[in-house]
């Protein structure tokens, strides 16, 4: 992998033909004491997963499956900025490579057109007493070469093909963006503005579940804590901090 940021010429890369999940492998490495910036890559994942334990389709040779071990100086409450900043940085890289404008589906999915091309899974282990982050695993799954998806994903997933870039180059580009800012992810107004500009949710009617009941409203804004502000049909405002929204297609 070439062109790494000069501060990180000595980062450790572990590359596996197959793992259960690079995030799971990274957690083991972190517990063993791996340094900030340690990277786990795999050609295939047998149990690649996203938020809520959902499977992340990870066939051999077709995607970039990568996890970074980070040891940022930050409090758990700031960890939302990691996902937001990384989503923006991934969009910048994909825009340079594809000359298309990727968009972000709140909170952590990157879309090309109306289909998901990339997912981000950040998992943090914190000090119980102080809430300080001890380490964080930043997992990125990007569909690169896939020409076909299983039936259940056909309508919702896409890949970068027929892009003429290698996974190595994409990986280097992503590391070059993420590593320089990864030791302290703090709130950055410019990132929030760009995150909102790239959002494919703002202005749309979205559905989410509250107290087990489906609710509908218009996504109006994203606040400084990453919360999605939704105006409900009765005029009330609800701020969502996690979970999932689906965009209603007319
Ligand atoms: C999501 O879609 O909710 C996030 C998907 C994140 C997938 C990546 S692939 C590399 C790393 N290993 C995993 O098991 N998950 C992340």
Automatic annotation (TrEMBL):
<comment type="function">
    <text>Acts both as a biotin--[acetyl-CoA-carboxylase] ligase and a repressor.</text>
</comment>
<keyword id="KW-0238">DNA-binding</keyword>
<dbReference type="GO" id="GO:0016874">
    <property type="term" value="F:ligase activity"/>
</dbReference>
<keyword id="KW-0804">Transcription</keyword>
<feature type="domain" description="BPL/LPL catalytic">
    <location>
        <begin position="14"/>
        <end position="186"/>
    </location>
</feature>
<keyword id="KW-0436">Ligase</keyword>
<keyword id="KW-0678">Repressor</keyword>
<keyword id="KW-0805">Transcription regulation</keyword>
<keyword id="KW-0067">ATP-binding</keyword>
<keyword id="KW-0092">Biotin</keyword>
<keyword id="KW-0547">Nucleotide-binding</keyword>
<feature type="binding site">
    <location>
        <position position="45"/>
    </location>
    <ligand>
        <name>biotin</name>
    </ligand>
</feature>
<protein>
    <recommendedName>
        <fullName>Bifunctional ligase/repressor BirA</fullName>
        <ecNumber>6.3.4.15</ecNumber>
    </recommendedName>
</protein>
<feature type="binding site">
    <location>
        <position position="116"/>
    </location>
    <ligand>
        <name>biotin</name>
    </ligand>
</feature>
<feature type="binding site">
    <location>
        <begin position="21"/>
        <end position="23"/>
    </location>
    <ligand>
        <name>biotin</name>
    </ligand>
</feature>
<comment type="similarity">
    <text>Belongs to the biotin--protein ligase family.</text>
</comment>
């Amino acid at each position: 992998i070439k062109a790494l940021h000069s501060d990180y010429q000595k980062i450790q890369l572990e590359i596996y033909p197959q793992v259960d999940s690079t995030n799971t492998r990274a957690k083991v490495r972190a517990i063993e004491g791996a340094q900030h910036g340690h990277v786990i890559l795999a050609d295939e994942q047998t149990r690649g997963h996203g938020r809520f334990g959902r499977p992340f389709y990870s066939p051999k040779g077709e995607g970039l499956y990568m996890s970074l071990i980070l040891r940022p100086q930050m409090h758990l409450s700031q960890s939302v900025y990691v996902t937001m900043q990384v989503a923006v940085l991934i969009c910048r890289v994909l825009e340079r490579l594809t000359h298309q404008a990727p968009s972000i589906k709140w909170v952590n999915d990157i879309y090309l057109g109306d289909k998901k091309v990339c997912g981000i899974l950040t998992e943090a282990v914190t000090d119980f007493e102080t809430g300080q982050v001890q380490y964080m695993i930043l997992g990125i799954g990007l569909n690169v070469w896939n020409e076909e998806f299983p039936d259940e994903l056909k309508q919702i997933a896409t890949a970068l093909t027929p892009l003429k870039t290698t996974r190595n180059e994409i990986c280097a580009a992503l590391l070059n963006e993420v590593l320089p800012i990864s030791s302290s992810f703090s709130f950055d107004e410019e990132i929030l503005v760009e995150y909102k500009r790239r959002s494919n949710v703002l202005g749309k009617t979205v559905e989410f579940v509250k107290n087990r009941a489906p609710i509908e409203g218009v996504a109006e804004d994203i606040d400084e804590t990453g919360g999605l502000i939704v105006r409900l049909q009765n005029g009330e405002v609800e701020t969502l901090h996690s979970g999932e929204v689906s965009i209603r297609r007319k």
